[in-house]
Design goal:
The protein is of the alpha+beta class. The protein folds into 3 domains: about 5-100 and about 320-359, Rossmann fold (3-Layer(aba) Sandwich), CATH 3.40.50; about 120-125 and about 200-315, ATP-grasp fold, B domain (D-amino Acid Aminotransferase, Chain A, domain 1); about 130-195, 2-Layer Sandwich (Dna Ligase, domain 1), CATH 3.30.1490.20. The protein is built from 12 helices and 12 strands. It has helices spanning about 35-45, 55-65, 85-95, 105-110, 115-120, 140-145, 175-185, 235, 240, 255-270, 305-310, 315-330, and strands at about 5-10, 50-55, 70-75, 130-135, 150-155, 170, 190-195, 200-205, 210-220, 245, 275-285, 290-295. It has a 5-stranded antiparallel sheet, sandwiched between helices. Bound molecules: adenosine-5'-triphosphate and magnesium ion.
Length: about 350
């Protein structure tokens, strides 16, 4: 019997690796060992042989040494580059190894929030009005002076709430300039200035092959409805006390219809694959405004939004991993064997495209 070897690519949150000069949320997007362990256990229980590949240099060494047939990718990439999420899939494409999730191009685009907004806008999806502040020169300050307030300021190439604080919502030009300066200096990248959309925060999980909305979750503050509520880092770190998750979200029918349509339009125009999570703000008039997409959403059991949505919609953690794998295998035209069915000698591996001798 030949058992398929699946590698997991990931970046672990290693506190010792943070430089003293980095912002305190520098490692926020990286994964905890328990997430890798949970994915590994599901894949093993499905009968696959699992290889933990890690990230960065360790990943490069292991991917050349280990003969894996497929990679389950959750690696966020190294450094602060806006295309860091593309690093692992780019290497895998170079080596001809199939993997789960979006390709390097989509991952690179989606970490760049202004670029992503331009693309979804061309597909007819509403997104808050915005400008990008690359430096605080006089031309930019003049542009900021006419920008509608309140506004919302965030780093242009981050996720996991990095750089999103209570102070991100600004009501005066003075606060706006100060917050732009904070982002430019702390995150060393442009600041995205958006019109603040009062209303509800919703996040939409999509699974693929074919693309479908798996569930919609509304994030609500525990201390009562507040259209100015912001799902900031302070709130995420204290989520148990501060918020509750409503899933499925109780939205008016016309809102939900448009939200589903706009989510799938965005998934398609951005070229997402296998899974993605979309964040929208629903205005008080019921218009869904696209905020951002996470083509590599967090997968921490019992904690990450995508996992919570899946659970509330009736999918266990192992079912979720199985569905992601099934989508990737379908797309790659690889044979998918659910739990307890292995590859046999009569069924040679259709996916063994990696050949060390070619290197
Ligand atoms: N234009 C806006 N108007 C109102 N609120 C906003 C706006 N942009 C962001 N927010 C608030 O800030 C939160 C985080 O913003 P966003 O989703 O862009 O950041 P992120 O760090 O990429 O998120 P994630 O943790 O999902 O990766 C949103 O969920 C929302 O509550
Ligand atoms: Mg978000």
């Amino acid at each position: 019997m030949i058992v398929m070897r699946i590698g997991i690519a990931y970046d672990i949150r290693d506190v010792s690796a943070v430089s003293c000069e980095g912002p305190e949320d520098a490692l926020e997007e990286y994964d905890l060992p328990e997430t890798v362990e949970a994915i590994s256990q599901v894949l093993s229980s499905m009968g696959y042989s699992v290889v933990k590949l890690g990230g960065g240099r360790e990943f490069l060494q292991r991917i050349l040494r280990e003969e894996v047939d497929f990679v389950f990718n959750i690696a966020e990439g190294r450094g602060t580059y806006r295309s860091r999420e593309a690093q692992v899939p780019a290497v895998l494409e170079m080596l001809g190894i199939p993997y789960s999730g979006s390709d390097p191009q989509t991952l690179a685009i989606c970490l760049d929030k202004p670029l992503t907004k331009r693309l979804v806008k061309t597909a007819g999806v509403a997104t808050p009005r915005w400008i990008v502040a690359e430096s605080l020169n006089s031309r930019l300050i003049n542009a900021l002076k006419t920008f509608p307030l309140p506004a919302f300021v965030k780093p242009a190439y981050e996720g996991s709430s990095k750089g999103i604080r209570f102070s991100s919502k600004v009501g005066t030009i003075k606060e706006l300039i100060a917050q732009v300066r904070f982002v430019l200096e702390t995150y060393r990248q442009p600041a995205l200035v958006e019109e603040f959309i009062p209303g509800d925060d919703v996040t939409v999980a999509v699974l693929d092959s074919p693309p479908r909305v798996t569930g919609i979750m509304r994030v609500l503050p525990k201390d009562g409805y507040d259209p100015d509520f912001v799902y900031s880092l302070e709130i995420k770190r204290d989520w148990n006390e501060r918020i509750f998750y409503e899933c499925p979200a109780q939205l008016p029918e016309f809102v939900e219809k448009r939200l589903r349509r706009d989510t799938l339009k965005s998934f398609s125009v951005l070229g997402c694959r296998d899974l993605s999570r979309f964040d929208f703000r629903i205005s008080t008039e019921g218009i869904p405004y696209f905020l951002e997409v996470n083509p590599l959403p967090g997968m921490r059991p019992g904690y990450s939004d995508f996992v919570i949505i899946a659970e509330r919609m009736g999918y266990s953690y192992s079912k979720l991993i199985e569905l992601i794998l099934e989508s990737a295998f379908k797309r790659l035209k690889m044979k998918f064997f659910p739990r307890d069915e292995h590859y046999s000698n009569e069924e040679p591996l259709k996916c063994r495209v990696f050949d060390k001798r070619r290197l």
